[in-house]
Specification:
- The complex is a heterodimer.
- Chain A has eight helices and no strands.
- Helix content of chain A is about 70%, strand content about 0%.
- In chain A, helix 1 packs antiparallel against helix 2 and helix 5 runs antiparallel to helix 7.
- Chain B is of the alpha+beta class.
- Helices cover about 25% and strands about 20% of the residues of chain B.
- In chain B, a hairpin with a 3-residue loop joins strand 2 and strand 3.
- The longest helix of chain B has 22 residues.
- The two termini of chain B are about 25 Å apart.
- The chains are: A mainly alpha, B alpha+beta.
- Chains A and B meet through helix 1, helix 2, helix 7 and helix 8 of A and helix 1, helix 2, helix 3, helix 4 and strand 2 of B.
Amino acid sequence: METGKQVIHPGWLRAMHWLNALAVVVLMMSGWRIYNATAFLGFTIPKDITLGGWLGGALQWHFAAMWVLGINGLLYLAFNLATGRLLRKFFPLSPQALLADLQAALKGRLAHADPRHYNTVQRLAYLFVMVDSVLLVISGLVLWKSVQFPLLRELMGGYEGARLVHFFAMAALAAFVAVHLVMVALVPRTLLYMVRGR
Amino acid sequence: MMIKPPPRLAIDGDAVLKEAVSRISHASRISEPARRDFLRRSLTLGGLSMLTGCTLVDEASIDTALMRISRMNDDVQGWLFDPKRLAPTYPDSMITRPFPFNAYYSESEVRQIEEGSYRLEVTGLVADKRKWALPELRAMPQIDQVTRHICVEGWSAIGKWGGVPFASFLRRVGADLSAKYVGFKCADDYFTSIDMPTALHPQTVLALTYDGQPLPPRYGFPMKLRMPTKLGYKNPKHIQAIFVTNTYPGGYWEDQGYNWFGGS
């Protein structure tokens, strides 16, 4: 394989990816237990896939893992910007390229011969998950410290607005994770690239 | 503690990772079920411990670590707390009716406190330790405010509480305002404690009324400490004793794992 010798994901990126995955799983599973305390959308999430055992335990997991997600996320954005990786990997984005890639994807012929290069659908998906994570952090900050961040609170449509934003941003992240895992299952060598870099 | 026990797996993370990598290297030759199996396992906590190379075996130490992080979060929140920043207030028309009852017991078990014999005790780092009768508290200048009560369980409701600004009460009894904590003991056997900056916050009220009427038993007669900057469980009802201290007093829920600072 011609890409065998070349580094596809640098070490810092792989470390941050797996740290982020760990934080997201802990935050999501504990968040589901926190949601269940009132279940304000009228359904409960099966206890077996939640973390923490009871509300207090789930909150402790949630407020511990938030530091991992927050700090790791800030470092990720800083590294991505400083190294120019963000611009290089995720831009340019053009509607024409997106349409072409979507058509190719539907025909099962989307190009991923070169794993160093993201197609437009990938670019959009990864940029989406960055924005969605920022939204999760901001709405989470409002739920945690609504009095201290009045501007963010108004941006989220008030305290109860932040709760809805936080939940649906979580649901969007869960949907991303599901698609992401299906893609990895379809192209398993991408998992290898994310583990050992090439 | 009621933490859900993590899977009791003693995994040699490195060996498992090495094996997983070698298996994935031949992923094109791995059968579909094996591949799915790997992905499924990597979604469990055991899978996480495999990916990170650490093992989740000791429930008690996880519990201790989480409690320690929670106490660290108390410090962060104390540092973030701006004593001048106010919680939003609302018009009377936005009051939630009926305002929900909430306690660690059911509404049928609400304690009935007798007004005539009631005395509030004030102890600890205060100059004036005499007991207070309700008429004396009612004689002090009062304020009222319509604010949002935020419950840790994931709901909120708007209510109207009135009473004595807690800062003026603390000054009146000559409390040591440089002390770290103010603690509360309640007639319903509840207890909690707060940080001094929150105790002195302009919206922290020793509430004697709800919606213009004397505080009804279900909302904490004869008094509750109302803080719109803190979650519901930090707002004690049926207060019997207030004490000022530098020794961490904990609280009913806080000792079980709810965050001590517990608010915004």
